[in-house]
Amino acid sequence: MVGNLYLVATPIGNMEDMTFRGVRILKEADLIAAEDTRTSRKLLDHFEIRTELTSYHEFNKIEKARTLLDRLHEGQNVAVITDAGTPGISDPGEELCKMCYEEGIRVYAVPGPAAVITAVTSSGQNCRRFAFEAFLPKDKKEHARIIEEMKRETRTMIVYEAPHHLKKTLAELCKELGGQREVTLCRELTKKFEEKLKMTLQEAVDYYETTEPRGEYVLVIAGKSKEESLAEQKAIYENVSLEDHMQQYLDQGMDRKEAMKAVAKDRGITKRDVYKMLLE
Fold it and tell me: Scanning 57, 96, 228, 263, which has its CA 20 to 30 A from the CA of 275?
């Protein structure tokens, strides 16, 4: 009989956010795989958890995963924790989880704190649809690709950033997304000096010219508005005559009625407007 893998969320700042179930699972597990054993030892000591501890981090996540799988196949239960938050979200855990599925080992999530959810729900931004970007890629090509996607994104976007990179990231986002785009800067979430600042990207750039960033940041950025998207869409056809626009769709095999409908959608106007303009 094989053991179970538990992905246990831990506090992102406030120790009181640890769940009763999380404490119980960590006490009952045969082994705890932690991102940083020194950091995790403080948590375990606080809750009087004496379970065996081993390191499992970004630099050994593949090799160590095989060792953890061996323990699971021996029937032992393994719990994975990170320095803060939920394993697998910008932290080790994803690869091990996939490997467990491939080998028929059951995986259980023990929910709790996650900086992305804490930030977006308290940001004052639209929470219904959001895209989690985590830390922006360091690779230049991948970084450019993600920024290009963010420029078109209509959902709220969440980005993690370290204090020493914040000014540069804000300047880039301001340039690429526009200075009037709203952002909520969430700092030191759940900790004593928690702070949230909601402003435009340009205001954020200006603010940090005289204020030194401190602590870890979560940026919750408004997506491109419907009005902004519509304005950009209309701009595409500003230099295209209505007749030429219609002809593009007629050449694709559409009948005149379908073409008028497509043109109206492209230009953000009604089909009746298209009909009138063509008559004129």
Answer: 228
